[in-house]
Specification:
single chain, 784 residues, six-stranded mixed β-sheet, 32 strands, 26% helix, binds beta-D-glucopyranose
Length: 784
């Protein structure tokens, strides 16, 4: 037998050149891609062409069997590879080989401000996708965080178009380097979840181009994304999955996108608009798979039989169809037909290491003060964090979020993680070498006793779409009883760590709806007040993808933003709390004190105004009245207009985050004082680690246009660099800009422009306003 196989293989090898001679062009890897596409297209029948532009199951679309093109399998995205569902149901298929590594949610990735982490993220996810046989990952998401109520902000990369652009490009490149397509979503203006199928966004051209499109454009032009997903909502009264301006004009004509536009699942609403307005591949249009179609429910898709009929009737030639098929074939060659693809791995050690590293780099230390004597908080006393095990004998962990799995829930990004270390277990492992076991766990080596109190009940449902894991959340006690227990235990503890925040349940951080309130849910504010009164040595760890109101902030000495950080959550958080890792994350959005500090709410332009309402088909017009002043741009504008007005300072500015060490920025210099429109300018600053811990600092460069013919933000992020320094070490950090960093979108001319004149470059560690006390350095320069 062995002999026979060897002979057969030898035969194949010797046949190689002969085969190449007869090989059809579309299969010949030595031929240019576009020639192969032309050849394949010529060979395809009308039915085959129609078949490849719409789905055949929830997540797959057909290849061309006759010609040897395999089916195309897509999957969510963006934080790990979603478990398989049934052919035409959202229900889990119940496979036993589809668990994955859950990577941190994209807000955490953005908070790392480290482009190497984004590359690592994309590569690791790509390898998981390859193993699972997926050729398109439905992600990353780069919609801008316009309001902290946005239900899917946790899946996106924050409020700033520059930061999101820099982070999305390496993610896309990393993923695609494995032969797996990124499908960047949701293009565009899908900034809130409430009424997402009905929102008609009204936005100025400037805000569209300066705020909402740059990350998509970077993903397309720099990242060379192979696919993009149209959004559910409308722009200029047309659904975005077949929107002439967004798809034909901007994406395909202006940006030169050569990939595939995929509809969001159920986002296609019209055959004719889909034909002419740039949709290439239709997915998720409603069908129950059984009763809707005569032979095949998918024949009822907008781009299926209905399209074929229009061609047969002569209403359309195959011009548009061929263009769509051409793009789909290009995607096939880049993915399913790519014979150079590497091998995939699922749940490998290196993927867990990547998930841990990204989580550790994204966790943000928001506050870290000390407590003196019986309770007076003090900046002089040693900061609460990192926790000193030598001086601690009893630690109390409080809160549902310490024992709630967060890799499930939240909508389409929900995962079946092979493992998820819960925060309580992460802390327990660090102190006692084992997972937490009730009623308390003792660490022989450390001599520390770890206790837990539930404190509050949020959502006790422990399974989501068929995935059930984690510790039991069953609870029968009343709110009063839970608080009383937590307070009692807090009195006996040396330190209390509360895990609260949001979760991925409906109306928290979850697809389909926005949050209803900025305040913490489930009575957590009362619990925090009670805890800090009982024991002032309280560390509050907030688990969420959005900011929340913190009315008790001045009473709580230490606050950490812990995000939704996937498989290694507990491990990552414990490593930061105990100082094994020095936190270096910076906020990718403004942490408002109250909603009225946010432009969308201050202008009363969220969630919009119903135009016509009826039978679920009404349209809600949402005018983005804050215009280009989103996030810190709005805060800065208010501050510059009324410098003395009270109540406009956010709790924490965009770009903010502390460290266990301190850094000093000094000696900002530019390599010249003037630059030309086609030139560059390099700023250099000396960064010194002036504290006692090794750690990383993010140097942030903001640009202000001193005199402009149009209103411009007070400052805009245009460069950053993360640098790791040993205690006492100094390094010169350089950031280079060109005139794109000075440009605005000229809506009259329809293009970007940089006006000659004076500009100021500001370098800071925390993005705070121009008048903030924090350390910042300014340099003036001129564009000629
Ligand atoms: C979501 C997409 C997702 C798709 C497939 C839609 O509801 O908006 O982000 O990729 O479902 O699960």
């Amino acid at each position: 037998m062995k002999h026979l196989i060897l002979t057969a293989v030898a035969g194949l090898v010797s046949l190689g050149p002969l085969q190449a001679q007869n090989m059809p062009v579309y299969l010949d890897e030595s031929k240019p891609l576009e020639q192969r596409i032309d050849d394949a297209l010529r060979r395809m029948t009308l039915d085959e062409k129609i078949a490849v532009i719409h789905a055949q199951s929830k997540f797959s679309s057909p290849g061309v069997k006759r010609l040897g093109f395999p089916d195309l399998w897509t999957d969510d995205g963006p934080h790990g590879v979603r478990p398989d569902v049934l052919w035409d149901e959202w229900e889990q298929a119940g496979q036993t080989n589809d668990s994955c590594v859950a990577f941190p949610a994209l807000t955490c990735l953005a908070a790392s401000w480290n482009t190497d982490m984004a590359r690592l993220y994309g590569e690791s996810l790509g390898e998981e996708a390859l193993y699972r046989g997926k050729s398109v990952i439905l992600g990353p998401g780069v919609n801008i965080n316009r309001t902290p109520l946005g239900g899917r902000n946790f899946e996106y990369m924050g409020e700033d178009p520059y930061l999101a652009s820099r982070m999305v490009v390496p993610y896309v490149k990393g993923l695609q380097s494995k032969g797996v397509a990124a499908c960047v979503k949701h293009y565009a203006l899908n900034n809130d979840e409430e009424y997402r199928h009905q929102v008609n966004v009204i936005v100025s051209d400037r805000a569209l181009h300066e705020i909402y499109l740059p990350a998509f454009r970077a993903a397309v032009q720099e990242g060379k994304a192979w696919a993009i997903m149209g959004a559910y909502n409308l722009y200029q009264n047309q659904h975005n999955c077949h929107n002439a301006i967004l798809l034909n004009n901007i994406l395909k004509r202006d940006w030169g996108f050569d990939g595939v536009v995929i509809s969001d699942w159920g986002g296609c609403h019209s055959t004719e608009e889909a034909i002419v307005n740039g949709l290439d591949l239709e997915f998720g249009t409603w069908t129950d798979g059984l009763t809707m179609g005569k032979t095949n429910a998918y024949d009822s898709y907008y781009l299926a039989d209905a399209y074929k009929q229009l061609i047969r009737e002569g209403r359309y030639t195959t011009k548009e169809l061929d263009e769509k098929v051409r793009r789909v074939l290009r995607l096939f060659y880049r993915t399913t037909m790519n014979r150079q693809k590497p091998v995939g791995f699922l749940c490998s050690d290196s993927h867990y290491e990547a998930a841990l590293k990204i989580a550790q780099e994204g966790i943000v230390l928001l506050k870290n003060e000390g407590v003196k004597g019986k309770g007076e908080r003090s900046k002089e006393a040693t900061s609460l964090l990192p926790l000193d095990i030598q001086k601690t004998k009893r630690i109390l962990v409080v809160g549902e979020n310490a024992i709630k799995m967060m890799t499930v829930g939240g909508g389409s990004s929900s995962l079946k993680a092979q493992k998820e270390i819960l925060p309580l277990d992460g802390i327990s492992r660090r102190l006692t070498g084992k997972d937490y076991s009730f009623p308390s766990t003792f660490g022989e080596g450390t001599g520390v006793r770890l206790d837990f109190a539930r404190g509050y009940v949020g959502d006790t449902v422990q399974s989501y779409n068929g995935v059930t894991v984690g510790r039991s959340l069953y609870e029968t006690r009343s709110t009063e009883e839970l608080i009383a227990e937590a307070v009692e235990k807090a009195r006996q503890a040396d330190i209390v760590i509360m895990f609260g925040g949001l979760n991925k349940s409906d109306y928290q951080d979850c697809e389909g709806h926005d949050r209803k309130q900025f305040e913490l849910p489930y009575g957590q504010n009362e619990l925090i007040e009670a805890l800090v009164a009982a024991n002032p040595r309280l560390v509050y760890v907030n688990i969420s993808g959005n900011a929340v109101a913190m009315p008790w902030l001045n009473k709580v000495p230490a606050v950490v933003q812990g995000w939704f950080i996937g498989s290694e959550a507990g491990e990552a958080i414990a490593s930061v709390l105990f100082g094994d890792v020095n936190p270096s994350g910076k906020l990718p959005f403004t942490w408002y004190a109250s909603l009225d500090q946010c432009g969308a709410h201050a202008t009363d332009s969220y969630p919009g105004t119903w135009r016509e309402q009826g039978a679920g088909r009404g349209i809600i017009d949402e005018e983005y009245k804050e215009d280009i002043f989103v996030g810190y741009r709005w805060i800065d504008k208010m501050e510059s207009q009324k410098p003395k007005a009270k109540g406009q300072k956010p709790l924490f500015p965009f770009g903010y985050g502390l460290s266990y060490t301190t850094f000093e920025l000094k000696n900002l210099r530019a390599d010249k004082q003037e630059m030309t429109a086609d030139g560059q300018l390099t700023f250099t600053v000396d960064v010194t680690n002036t504290g006692n811990y090794a750690g990383s600092e993010v140097v942030q460069l903001y640009i202000s246009d001193v005199q402009a013919s149009v209103p411009r933000p007070v400052k805009e992020l245009k460069g950053f660099s993360k640098v790791f320094l040993q205690p006492g070490e100094t390094r010169a950090v350089s950031i280079t800009i060109d005139s794109t960093a000075l440009s605005f979108y000229d809506d009259k001319a329809g293009k970007w422009t940089a006006e000659p004149g004076e500009f100021v470059a500001m370098v800071t560690q925390d993005g705070s306003g121009l008048k903030a006390k924090s350390q910042k350095l300014n340099a003036k320069f001129v564009l000629r």
